[in-house]
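Hypothesis: this fold can be encoded by more than one sequence.
Test: take the structure tokens below, design a sequence, compare later.
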């Protein structure tokens, strides 16, 4: 192996070891804030010196964070299963006629404001996390469906023909060729969906779903600016941690060479 190749390999290994440092930094900042919010009371007291209480204490921020993450994760899993499944179904020969309808239905999910979805879902599903998850699934479908359709339709016809020529079944072509090649585009859609829903989930506090939206809603109702800032900063840090994690997990677009390969070339 040439010296240039060895150096390129070592550089790639170092980058691989440090690739998650940014999301870990955001996560560490988030957890430190969740655990040590009370230590910042003097700072928040400068904003509202006349308020009796400037730190939200009705529930632990660590508990609120866990509940927030759980809601977003469940909604993301459901939206991914439904969105990817629907997009795969309408790109097959038997379901191609339904492609416009599926794309339009996914778009409708984002045309309804999440607050309206919650208002319609609460009388049927009751208060709590369930209507919030329903709203997040509907709101998160569009980027997943669109990106999955774009990724699958972007697979070269020559590649598909070569796979069939090798004797692959339609199922093998989908699982071993189409989905792996479309994975970068699909994951980009999931990343967009999840990042948007991290912020959208805060509305769940209006229907009794306890999460990081609690201090924000409480701050708005009681005119307590520090409460609003605390919830908003926590949600912002969570969104940054999630987005940077997806950025590190996202596979390279097919044909995109790594730095080490570029150096070798």
């Amino acid at each position: 192996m040439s010296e240039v190749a060895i150096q390129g390999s070592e550089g790639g290994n170092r980058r691989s070891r440090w690739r998650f440092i940014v999301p870990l930094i955001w996560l560490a900042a988030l957890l430190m804030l969740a655990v040590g919010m009370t230590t910042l009371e003097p700072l928040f007291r400068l904003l509202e010196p006349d308020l009796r209480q400037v730190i939200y204490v009705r529930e632990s921020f660590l508990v609120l964070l866990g509940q927030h993450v759980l809601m977003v994760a469940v909604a993301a899993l459901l939206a991914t299963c439904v969105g990817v499944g629907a997009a795969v179904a309408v790109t097959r020969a038997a379901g191609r006629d339904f492609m416009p309808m599926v794309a339009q239905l996914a778009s409708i999910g984002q045309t309804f404001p999440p607050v309206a979805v919650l208002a319609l879902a609460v009388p049927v599903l009751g208060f709590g996390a369930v209507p919030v998850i329903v709203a997040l699934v509907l709101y998160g479908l569009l980027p997943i469906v669109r990106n999955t359709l774009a990724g699958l339709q972007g697979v070269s016809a020559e590649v598909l023909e070569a796979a069939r020529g090798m004797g692959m079944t339609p199922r093998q072509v989908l699982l071993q060729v189409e989905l792996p090649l479309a994975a970068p585009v699909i994951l980009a859609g999931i990343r967009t969906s999840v990042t948007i829903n991290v912020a959208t989930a805060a509305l769940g506090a209006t229907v009794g779903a306890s999460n990081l939206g609690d201090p924000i809603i409480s701050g708005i109702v009681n005119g307590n600016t520090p409460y609003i800032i605390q919830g908003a900063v926590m949600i912002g840090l969570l969104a940054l941690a999630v987005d940077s994690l997806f950025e590190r997990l996202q596979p390279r677009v097919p044909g995109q060479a790594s730095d080490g390969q570029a150096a070798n070339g």
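The CA atoms of residues 11 and 17 lie 10 Å apart. The longest helix spans residues 170-200.
Hypothesis status: open.
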